[in-house]
Amino acid sequence: MGRLVQVLKTAAIAGTAAAIGGAAFYSTLDVQRRFELASATGPLVRLLDPETSHRVGILAARMGLFPKETRPDPPALRVNLWGRSFPNPIGLAAGFDKDAEAIEPLLNLGFGFVEVGSITPRPQPGNPKPRVFRISELKATVNRYGFNSEGADAAAERLERFWRRVAADPTRKKGLLAINLGKNKETEDAGDDYAVGVLKLSRYADFVVVNVSSPNTPGLRALQGRKQLQSLLTFVRDARDGLEWGPGGPPPLLVKIAPDLTESDKADIAAVVAATGVDGVVISNTTIARPESISKYPASREAGGLSGPPLLEPTTAVLADMYRLTRGAVPLVGCGGVASGEDAYRKIRAGASLVELYTAMAYEGPVIVPRIKQELAACLERDGFASVEDAVGADHPNIPRPGKKKGAGKR
């Protein structure tokens, strides 16, 4: 309670200062300073519990308190994938904007894409609170949200409003929009729930992600078994293809997998992806493993999925395995532990065409978005790659890479 009072008092002081002359002062700052100022409030917000901090972040975005990126991205960061052009490969992972409340402000931060969700067909509260725990020393988090969602209908209303604004002014959409679909906890036939998500939401998406990998919904990860996954993805793909689409066709369909997989699990998933014609794989969700490096922290004993820097090594290893198993034929999205441009570059060299982050922004604030892009561009230049596409899969010299220009880049 004492911390909350302190935060409220500080917020009141800040609000008064803004009313007196803060807006005028803010208008004098360059773009980078605006990002730094927005991120400087992070330690104050983190005086609150993690879930309240999360809600404060969403509200700040909705209220227009996030900075807007107006500087162009380096040309080397542009990625062409699925017939779509990404201004850069850095995306915001699902889990931050669960209900599509702040799409435009988040895209305005300079992300190449934003993934909203997971969105379930019907509203559900998720797991009991508390359900999010910080390991601040490692800038890591454990969560067991459990797909808390306002449901597909509420999300569809917000998505409809967003696209109406874009139709009126196309410049309002700075990047691409992905929609992550989940299932309701009590649903027995998962295919039905994912099909409902496709029917209600896919028309709003630049691409759709089927989440079968959250550790916080009972039985969900069992859907990654070969037979179950092939049946599910075939059913969802057919539901998508059964809708009417314009000349651009349906949105690409991706599946998001867990990092906690055996070698046979990974081989099965690669086989299913090839058999079903899925357009891509997101690698990966949070982990139920507890590395030795976090064992001394109380939050490590909480049930749920671990995210943040401890996830970088294991998820990048799974990413590399999936690139090898699919022979580079299926676009991969690298997610897990990304906190710098060097981290993103490692994912790209391991086989990722796109890279997502979330926990790092919760700790570092919006300033991480321009920083990570600048660092990634420097990594590409350092190693002689003309573009992100040239660097994808560079750590796999025995796998042909169509985007790789002859003689470009270092091994």
Describe the structure.
- The protein is an alpha/beta fold and 411 residues long.
- The chain has a single domain (73-391), classed as Aldolase class I (TIM Barrel), CATH 3.20.20.
- The protein has helices spanning 2-27, 31-40, 42-45, 50-62, 103-107, 152-168, 190-201, 226-241, 263-276, 312-325, 341-350, 359-364, 368-382, 388-391, and strands spanning 79-81, 84-86, 90-92, 113-119, 132-135, 140-143, 176-181, 207-211, 253-257, 280-283, 305-307, 332-335, 352-357.
- It has an 8-stranded parallel beta barrel with strand order 3-4-7-8-9-10-12-13, surrounded by 4 helices. It has a 3-stranded antiparallel beta sheet with strand order 5-6-11, with no helix packed on it. Strands 1-2 form a two-stranded antiparallel sheet.
- Residues 4-21 have low confidence and may be disordered.
Briefly note the CATH topology name: TIM Barrel
Flag low-confidence runs.
4-21
Query: Reading side by side through the largest sheet, how are the strands ordered?
Result: 3-4-7-8-9-10-12-13
Backbone shape: globular
What fraction of residues sit in β-strands?
Answer: 5-15%
Mean pLDDT: 90
Q: Compute the number of structural domains.
A: 1
Please provide the count of β strands. 13
The share of residues in helices is 40-55%
Radius of gyration: 21 Å
Distance between the termini: 54 Å
Q: What's the CATH H-level superfamily name?
A: Aldolase class I
The CATH class turns out to be Alpha Beta
* Helix-strand pattern: HHHHEEEHEEEHEHEHEHEEHEHEHHH
Structural class determined from secondary elements? alpha/beta
Note the total helix count: 14
Largest sheet: 8 strands, parallel, barrel
Task: Give the CATH architecture.
Answer: Alpha-Beta Barrel
Family: Belongs to the dihydroorotate dehydrogenase family. Type 2 subfamily.
Pfam family, one: DHO_dh
Main location: mitochondrion
GO molecular function: dihydroorotate dehydrogenase (quinone) activity
